[in-house]
Specification:
homodimer; 234 residues; alpha+beta; Glutathione S-transferase Yfyf (Class Pi), Chain A, domain 2; four-stranded mixed beta sheet; 10 helices; 4 strands; 55% helix
């Protein structure tokens, strides 16, 4: 079965967390909105049926359409060996992923503290203020939490040596923060050795390495979650 | 088995979504932080073990500790008949709940657009600006989405006539918004008849009715997610 991924075609955004899992799994998938006519297909699907997605990303797997980043990964993880098989392990990895998703909202809101539908340029003073609080308070809280998780789990990934989808997501978070908050991340690198080591290990996995070098990987840009605005990097 | 719920003792907050499910299920549970010595027990548990919660609420069920509001409900829903049994149905209710959780972040951030650790009084102008965008853009987007979901599902709850935990959460959202954004909600009531009808049906269920009248139900206040600040209600 070929999966159909639906996500905005010009950004990594939340869709990237799904792309990384599909790539690592070697799954057969099409990134629909990046194909001809794909955007209108995506918009149509959002209006259809009794169980519509609230927003992209969503995934079509046969007759099933699943939305919400963390839930799509929960679904894929069980099917492609990217999560433990026991209930406690499956729930734990999902819990890690939900915490990643919470973190993403806060990362996004550093450049959009007033309204996601408004321009960055119309909320710059507020963004500076929020980004300062983020760098000083929220960034160390989330990174410190995940560093502890890795420490507790044999200094490997969220469940130890065996790769899970939340590890792929942590790669993307560290990578994205290194782009958006380059100075803040460089300054604090020594505090989070296990997160940076996990980032390096994921980047070196053959399928991920090939993906990152391909045209399928959209570069970071100032339309996504992780944006490099020097005035927010402090 | 008696469940142990861990959450801040003086607010409804995210814990309330779990309390409502436990109450409707008639489950045996203790709201630990509201008992003597419970707060320090909660703080200790957050520092323990290889799979610590990032934040309350979390639930102890025997040896298992699960965190993240939506995941706790996913776990409880399957055990207490508050979710469909088929995979597609279970995922769909979880998807609805994850969208509720996204909505909650935006509701919270109307009074805390700059930093969750800062005082409301220190971010009042930004809160006015964000609340205005929320009332005009995000509130109708989320409520309109859920109204459509109910419309598509036989005008009942998220999965039709059979109550699920996401319906209990929608009750709490409508109730909380009616407290926080009393004017905005009164003005738009006729646009969301199915959501308001669902709120009324849930409130009339015997166990929920008894719970709401009990001392276990903490009143809304200005420490939680739903806060009534007249200057934000427009």
């Amino acid at each position: 079965m070929r999966y159909e991924l639906y996500y905005w075609p010009e950004i990594q955004g939340r869709g990237e967390f799904i792309r990384l899992a599909l790539e690592e799994a070697g799954a057969d998938y099409v990134d629909v909105a990046r194909t001809k006519g794909g955007m209108s297909k995506m918009m149509r699907l959002m209006e259809e049926g009794a169980r519509p997605p609230f927003a992209p990303p969503f995934l079509r797997a046969g007759k099933l359409v699943v939305a919400q980043t963390a839930m799509i990964l929960f679904y894929l993880g069980g099917r492609h060996g990217l999560a433990p098989k026991d209930e406690a392990g499956r729930l734990w990895v999902h819990q890690c992923q939900l915490t990643v998703v919470d973190f993403l909202v806060e990362i996004h809101d550093t450049h959009h503290p007033i309204g996601s539908g408004l321009y960055y340029e119309d909320q710059k003073p507020e963004a500076r203020h929020r980004a300062e609080d983020f760098r000083e308070s929220r960034l160390p809280k989330f990174l410190g939490y995940f560093e502890d998780v890795l420490e507790h789990n044999s200094r490997g990934g969220c469940v130890g040596a065996r790769l899970c989808y939340a590890d792929l997501s942590l790669f993307q978070v560290v990578e994205g923060l290194g782009y958006a908050f380059a100075k803040a991340m460089a300054r604090t690198k020594s505090r989070y050795p296990l997160l940076h080591a996990l980032r390096d290990r994921v980047a070196a996995r053959p399928r991920i390495k090939a993906y990152l070098a391909s045209e399928r990987r959209i570069p970071f840009n100032e339309q996504g979650i992780f944006r490099h605005y020097p005035e927010l990097d402090g």
